[in-house]
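[SOLVED] Predicted holo structure with S-adenosylmethionine

Edit: marking solved, answer below. Original request kept for reference. I posted the sequence and ligand SMILES and asked for the 3D complex as structure tokens.
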Amino acid sequence: MQQDYWLKAWDENRTGFHQDQANKRLKRFWPKLGLAAGAEVFVPLAGKTLDMLWLHEQGYRVFGVELSRKAVEAFFAENKLAHTTHKTDRGTEFRGSAAAAGLRVLAGDFFDLAPVDLEGITGVYDRASLIAMDESMRAEYTRQLAKLVPRSARGLLLTIDYDPSRMQGPPFAVPDATTRLLLEEGFEIEELERYAGPERLGNLKGRGLDTLVEYVYRLTRR
Ligand SMILES: C[S@@+](CC[C@H](N)C(=O)[O-])C[C@H]1O[C@@H](n2cnc3c(N)ncnc32)[C@H](O)[C@@H]1O
């Protein structure tokens, strides 16, 4: 998906992907990664996800990147997070202060980041990010992710798969084999869980699908 699409989606409040609670797969599987508290977690294509807040509450530092400044402003305002803003070469960085210290979100483009921006990152969390990319952008997204994320960093990737003849993304269907193909060069990838069934449709109900598969993967940067 191109940037204009997402900026417009935020402007028009078309944000059905946003969850009003931290993701339950994150809560269930993150502790299994054994990442020490204090570690810094990269959240690409962050939106205003409460998953960042949950990670921060578990004692992690968080670095999110999100194209829409409106989304980043909403994240800090809606959660009443004290912060300062800083212009950088990559965009405007919102840095949490006081109780929100250690939480920062760049209002900028993921594709403009360079490895130097992620120095010290040891965790990564992708929910609704890879699957937000249409087919033409996927390989570019995963190449950039592998380029940015430092070696040995680990984390979670959540994806979905469905019959693409029945619904047009986003979110896009990414079959398991495609996920592996896209990521295996840069990451070890291990399926932790898959869930299937109509009860998984959630906010996608009414868009033509009968069922859906959700995947949870553990990623380790090679
Ligand atoms: C489907 S949403 C998912 C947001 C978040 N991960 C969540 O779980 O709620 C995808 C997000 O990626 C953002 N986005 C799209 N392209 C981007 C880019 N090149 N750089 C940074 N953010 C981008 C969009 O603005 C949108 O908020």
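OP edit: The chain has a mean pLDDT of 97. Thanks to everyone who chimed in.
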